[in-house]
């Protein structure tokens, strides 16, 4: 029986310093090739999720620049859907080529536009924290704030200022049950792009809301709902570190989930970078009794061979 994994890609897997469509497509070509060792032995069913913060932020700016009565700007939930389609298309192109390069042309690739249910009363609607879009200098941020007074801008980890929006926790992936048969048919699937289109339950259907869902939390919820055997979160470093960047930094290998939760609660991980990844991985392990790994794309070969990276595992009974 094939092992089923959900892979969550960070922004570095898509966007380089060049925001053009060509450059982002080329970045995904490299990413797709890097992921091939995970499935080349035909014993793994893989679901791929990805972020969209820079893409949706840039799209919103384009929308606002051309906003008019005849050509009105689209709301944030629709922009998330648009970037899902955009990145899903690039991924389809990249993975089709990578599969062919690795003798797996018969593996079908499907990109699914995905809705994620959130709580209308989630506290983040009152206190937006999720960065989207490009970085601005202090002067640029002042001009943006004047132009768009409803936006909230914050300084982001010393890298400049960014717009922040609500980021409610995912409760359910609407399309999860439709994704399972795709995996069982041996398709390679990408879903929940950008964490999924945020919706709330209303009457007999769903209503979109202005928010962006953290892709790591969405990946953890998706992995839980599709009965994944493992959640793998790829980031820019090969391991999770305690005291990262300090002389006494320590790489973590295999860590029981209760120990990792303690590190999380003691504040070892930065809110804008490693904290949501660790929190999502811990939630998946606690909810399923399965394992989660955090590592880098450059570490894929070692991960396949020896399980390299930081592995969060269930506590021993």
TrEMBL record:
GO terms for molecular function: carbamate kinase activity. The keyword Lipid metabolism does not apply. Pathway: Metabolic intermediate metabolism; carbamoyl phosphate degradation; CO(2) and NH(3) from carbamoyl phosphate: step 1/1. The keyword Oxidoreductase does not apply. Gene3D superfamilies: Acetylglutamate kinase-like. It comes from the Bacteria. Pfam families: AA_kinase. This is Carbamate kinase. InterPro entries: AceGlu_kinase-like_sf (IPR036393), Asp/Glu/Uridylate_kinase (IPR001048), Carb_kinase (IPR003964). GO terms for biological process: arginine metabolic process. CDD domains: AAK_CK (cd04235). Keywords: Arginine metabolism, Kinase, Transferase. Residues 3-295 form the Aspartate/glutamate/uridylate kinase domain. Belongs to the carbamate kinase family. It comes from Lactococcus lactis. It catalyses: hydrogencarbonate + NH4(+) + ATP = carbamoyl phosphate + ADP + H2O + H(+).
